[in-house]
Design goal:
26 strands, two-stranded antiparallel sheet, about 350 residues, Laminin, mainly beta, 5 helices
Length: about 350
């Protein structure tokens, strides 16, 4: 018997091939024993050492394994007599020269463990970590931690991609480590799958929580709320500003400030005219809009006017009566004389 490599996996006679699986998709030389008559070698009977015919004539067995036909497989003349290692005649997606089961599918998973039957470690007695996969290699069974895990295969620990910064989350997403992987969630104010996040325009969508008396301004990942003019607050709660009480109004000094919701109005005081922000004095005397008595004089003042009864009359200017010294006893007639009223502020003594 000629033995290739060091660990026998199975003996299938002359029809066995010297190849195995690496991982779940590759192929490499596998430790397999081939039983041959002592002193004989494999030949295809054509004498050219090729792969064109069916082997019928034993020959001398070389002392060492060699890749005699240059097909990349270490064999005795050929690991699979009668087949071309570069072809896949049984259509099992495995080149015939690497085929462990000519005529069958090396990729079948009859035990349902998710690993092709000729690639897994069933029956080897190897116990890998639950988060590792066992593979048969040319040096024997090997345990390899699954993606998202690290270790020697017999003990595997979760890789925290979030802490290591090896995740591929968007810069505007939060990475949450999970066993064997991680999740990406877009931060508040952003939307997407976590790997790509775009800004949410809350102002346009109307999903902001600004006060009705505030203006919403969108920002990257959020928004700002600013109370409108005439209101005070943080933008989320706005209250009316009483400019009149605070003295922050711009009314004219000769106007009265009236607070309104969110603003104020200015009204010129009596005796002034204008829009409330600019007020000018009204000359009631010139306009004749004063209320002085007929026998009184009108004198304009800032914002008003004064009335004074003319000579010979008494009163407040708004009401003037002739002065009658005789009736009032303010005359200067002798006690033995008679006072006779002759007109406002005039009289005769007889």
């Amino acid at each position: 018997m000629i033995r290739f490599h060091q660990i026998p996996v199975m003996s299938l006679g002359l029809a066995i091939l010297l190849a195995g699986c690496s991982g779940n998709s590759g192929y490499q030389t596998l430790d397999i024993s081939i039983d041959l008559p002592t002193g004989d070698s494999i030949s295809d009977g054509t004498g050219d050492g090729g792969d064109t015919g069916v082997d019928t004539t034993p020959g001398d067995v070389p002392t060492e394994c060699s890749d005699s036909d240059g097909d990349g497989v270490c064999d005795v003349d050929d690991a699979c007599p009668g087949f071309d290692d570069s072809e896949d005649e049984d259509m099992d997606t495995v080149p015939d020269g690497c085929d462990l089961c000519p005529g069958g599918d090396d990729r079948e998973d009859e035990d349902g463990d998710g690993t092709p039957d000729y690639c897994d470690c069933d029956g080897t007695g190897i116990t890998c970590d639950p988060n590792a996969t066992c593979f048969n290699t040319e040096t024997g069974p090997t345990c390899v931690c699954n993606e998202g895990w690290e270790g020697d295969g017999f003990t595997c620990t979760d890789v925290d991609e979030c802490t290591l910064g090896t995740d591929t989350c968007d810069v505007n997403a939060t990475c949450l480590n999970t066993e064997g992987g991680y999740d990406c969630t877009c931060n508040a104010g952003w939307e997407g799958d976590g790997f790509t996040c775009t800004d949410v325009d809350e102002c346009s969508l109307g999903t902001d929580t600004c006060d009705v008396n505030a203006t919403c301004t969108n920002t990257d990942g959020g928004y700002d709320c600013d109370c409108n003019m005439g209101y005070d607050g943080d933008g989320f709660t706005c209250t009316d500003v009483d400019e009149c009480s605070l003295g922050t109004d711009t009314c004219d000094t000769n106007a009265t400030c009236l607070n309104t919701v969110g603003s104020y109005t200015c009204v010129c005081n009596p005796g002034y005219t204008g829009d409330g922000f600019t007020c000018t004095d009204v000359d009631e005397c010139s306009l004749g809009t004063h209320g002085c008595h007929t026998y009184a004089t009108c004198t304009n003042t800032p914002g008003g006017y004064t009335c004074a009864c003319i000579s010979g009359y008494s009163g407040d200017g708004y009401t003037c009566t002739p002065i009658n010294h005789c009736a009032s006893g303010t005359d200067t007639c002798d006690t033995n004389a008679t006072c006779t009223y002759t007109g406002p502020d005039t009289y005769n003594c007889t």
